[in-house]
């Protein structure tokens, strides 16, 4: 879902990381599903992706 939202916005992983205040490699790991993500990071990503926090959970 995060990758889909990022691509819909037309931004890179680096840009998403900058907008969310997270490192690009962390974004990569999240998109690959190899990293457990904190609620604080979910909130940061939802703001950066311009979607509700609930939308990130509802898609799984």
Report on this model:
The protein is mainly alpha-helical. It has a single domain (2-58), classed as Orthogonal Bundle (434 Repressor (Amino-terminal Domain)). It contains five helices and no strands. Helix 2 (13-20) packs across helix 3. The longest helix has 11 residues, at 39-49. The radius of gyration is 10 Å and the shape is globular.
**Approximate helicity band:** over 70%
Strand content: under 5%
Name the CATH superfamily classification. lambda repressor-like DNA-binding domains
Radius of gyration: 10 Å
Q: Could you report the average pLDDT, rounded to the nearest whole number?
A: 91
The beta-strand count equals 0
CATH hierarchy: architecture: Orthogonal Bundle
Helices and strands, with pairings:
Layout: H1 2-9, H2 13-20, H3 24-32, H4 39-49, H5 53-58
Helix pairs in contact: 2-3, 2-4
Structural key phrases:
60 residues; 434 Repressor (Amino-terminal Domain); 5 helices; globular; mainly alpha; single chain
What's the short version?
The protein is mainly alpha-helical and 60 residues long. Helices cover 70% and strands 0% of the residues. The longest helix is centred in the last third of the chain and has 11 residues, at 39-49.
């Amino acid at each position: 879902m995060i990758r889909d939202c990022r691509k819909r916005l037309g931004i890179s992983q680096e840009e998403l990381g900058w907008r969310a205040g997270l490192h690009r490699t962390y974004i990569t790991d999240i998109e690959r599903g190899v990293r457990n993500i904190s609620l604080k990071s979910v909130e940061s990503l939802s703001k950066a992706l311009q979607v509700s926090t609930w939308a990130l959970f509802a898609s799984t």
